[in-house]
Amino acid sequence: MSSGIVRHGENNRMSLAVEAGGLVFLAGLTAVETRGGTVAAQTKEILQRIDHHLAQAGTSKANLVSAQIWLADAATFNELNTVWEAWVADVGKPVRACVESRLADPALTVEIMVTALR
Predict the structure, then answer these.
(1) Are 82 and 40 in contact (CB under 8 A)?
(2) pTM of the prediction?
(3) pLDDT tens sequence across 58-72
(4) Alpha-carbon torsion (80, 48, 28, 103), positive or negative
(5) Do residues 64 and 94 lie in contact, with contact meaning Cβ atoms separated by under 8 Å?
(6) 115, 58, 112, 52: which is closest to 83 by C-alpha?
């Protein structure tokens, strides 16, 4: 462990979250309970998980600075945005990138990775 870096949920491959330099970096999160479900359902679950992990690190979506989103099918962009826009409606919006990409499991339709100020 490096000085000033705190890792959460570390395993053989990665950490779920890393705190460094006043920032909290979350790993890309995918759906667990709604795996195989709609983009909207998976996005809602992922955003709830993001809220949970940010809270554990002492921050919240109000402090988001960036977000990266991967969609298995760009045709579902509007479905994702409907959920996303409701989630960020009452906070400052982070910078964001959203791309189409094949995900590791065909049942996954969305992956989201965020960085927040602590």
Answers:
(1) yes
(2) 0.94
(3) 999 999 999 999 999
(4) negative
(5) yes
(6) 112
